[in-house]
Amino acid sequence: MREQAPVVTFYNKRQWVTFDNAPQTYLVSYSGRFLQNEGIAVGLFQQNEGVLTTFGAVANFAHNIELQRDSNLTFGLNLGFYKSGLNASKVITNFPDPLIETFPSSSYFVLNPGINYGTSFLDFGVSVNNFLVYNLRTSELVVDDPEKSVSVHLMHTGYIEGNGFFDKSKFSGLLRSEFRKDKIGISGLAMLTIPNGVWTQLGYNTIFGISGGLGVNISQSIALEYNYERGLGNFTNFGASHEIGFAYKFSNRNSNYDEDDLGSIIPPASERGIAYSKPKAVQKPKEKTAPVVLKESVQEKPIAVVTPTRDTVAPPKQVVESLVTKDTIVTTSALAKAQPQKDTTKANLPKLKDREFVAIDNLTAVLAVTKTKQDNLLNRLTVTIAQRENDLAQMKQENDLSEQGIYTEPKPFKSSALENSELELLQTEITAIAKEQKDKIRELEIAYSEKMKKGNEQDEILLKEYAATIQNLKEEHLAAVQANADLNHSLEQIKEATEIEKKRRIKRASFVNVDGRLAQDIATLKRIKETTVLSTVPLKSSDFDSGEVQPEVQIIKGNKNVSPGYYVVIAVHNEVAKRDEFLTKTVASGEANVNFFYDANSSKYFIYYESFETIEAAKQALNKKGSAPYNGAMTIVKLEK
């Protein structure tokens, strides 16, 4: 679910190569998303073991639910079909054996469900292998399946901060346990991906032994991997196994992004930056637009919002007002802009229409109502996209500022699952109303065609007007369908860009180790001191939030970035925003020597402006704290190596 672009993979494993007719496996597969929250993979495989062969197909389906910004719940389903039997071409006999021709083969359907919960750095979940196995030859479920098992996994993904070759490398570690009736299997895999497009992996499995592999991106689209495996214990004499994988990655629709900024042996034709290409506001053809500015938007750019035009819709009562006579129905029909009003020489008398024309009018009235609904739905979708674009701009700004050492206040929590559910419902309604319109237009065309066959010279003028009406309705329908397609294309671009910004934020969080945090802290303090001006109004003690209440004296050990001594602390915070607010107000009050240090053990920031070599000197400063408004909660902290 985390992959943005589709991938085709070719895989071959030659197991225990020192033996003749040793097991071989071939697999070709395709994987990719077909909706933003749904992914699919299909594959064909064949495995040969001596004179036996197995071939089949496998299909994977995954549905992802975004619970919060950095937490997801993914449901997976694996459906497999395979057929096992004797490969007669591998059997060598001195004389024809009729038993070979009658050797039975077996065919099965297998269903395996699974679930995974993922956060920024951790994934854990459970799956059931051979949950259901259906034997096609006997037409019944397999009850006592020795291969049935339950698997649990735990995975960590992070990034390495360094100054050399491994700088910004991606590290992944996976632990997996498989529980069967008679045994438990344990496996692990560690992978390191270097930004230049090379990756290496090391694995262990209680059955197959240890493995090591190396992969490389030949280009931005082509990757090649080799893996070597060696059995342990009783499997040592079986020899080595070799795996070769080849993958082709299709270009991502949002070409401004590369998911992990990986390099390749053959560099891309043009280097792609991180900045995303902002989707254009989509306007429906032939419709009025009204500028709407979201107040919370970072860029405060007017967003074009589709609004229905009143002159294209007439209420049903105005469309058809009928007077029934003995042989005809007289109507005053307002077919919106589709039927131009004409002056008559007889004081605009209503036209006489038969029942077939009235039926056409009724269909036109229904289409006018569906047009109103469709306009409203497209308008709601446009507003939703504008909100998503605004959220993306805020996330990008947060990332940009954070890289400069500027931290912003966390945004209020919004339920991503609820937002996505509402969006899916809206898209479903738009699809349904478009289908209803298409069907009604088809009915209208059929009714018009039937009337044309029965028409006479007196109906010629009306028939021409209805032909223009139908053509106009068809054009409006196609325009609405195209507008919906354009809106959804913009939405997909925003979603892909949001995924990249999420990864960018996760990477940044991984890189903030002790040294990285210290550099950011120094930059933040410098910025606050350089940009804060003295307050023209004296600040009060009530203006300062000193944070958590601390003991009068406490000892902190293991901080290598701060000199040992006795520090007179004036505030303690565990939130960056509150820390920066206190620092800013302290500088505005005239205290230019304010400083702070971070304690990794408690994850707290300690703010101070004086330190001493002895506790007596520190206590003296504590007793003489004076009337400064920021000194209301002074305590002493002793720093030891």
Quick summary of this structure?
The chain has 641 residues and is α+β, with helices and mostly antiparallel strands. It contains 8 helices and 26 strands. The longest helix is centred in the C-terminal third of the chain and has 52 residues.
- Widest beta sheet: strand line-up: 1-2-3-4-5-6-7-10-11-12-13-14-15-16
Say what oligomer this is. Answer: single chain
Q: Write down the overall geometry.
A: flat
**Roughly what percent helix?**
25-40%
- What percent strand? 25-35%
Note poorly predicted spans.
254-259, 272-350
- What's the helix count? 8
Q: What integer is the average pLDDT? A: 77
Radius of gyration: 35 Å
Report the span from N to C terminus: 46 Å
How many strand elements? 26
List keywords for this structure.
5-stranded mixed β-sheet, 641 residues, 29% helix, 8 helices, PorP/SprF_Bacteroidetes, alpha+beta, 14-stranded antiparallel barrel
What does this structure look like?
Helix content is 29%, strand content 34%. By secondary structure, the chain is α+β, with helices and mostly antiparallel strands. The relative contact order is 0.07. A 14-stranded antiparallel beta barrel has the order 1-2-3-4-5-6-7-10-11-12-13-14-15-16. Helix 3 (355-403) packs antiparallel against helix 4 and helix 4 runs antiparallel to helix 5 (460-511). It is flat and about 105 Å long. It has helices spanning 98-101, 316-319, 355-403, 416-454, 460-511, 514-531, 576-588, 615-623, and strands at residues 7-14, 24-35, 38-49, 52-68, 71-86, 106-118, 122-129, 132-135, 140-141, 149-160, 169-179, 184-194, 198-205, 209-217, 222-230, 240-249, 288-292, 303-307, 321-324, 329-332, 352-353, 553-557, 565-573, 595-599, 604-612, 635-640.
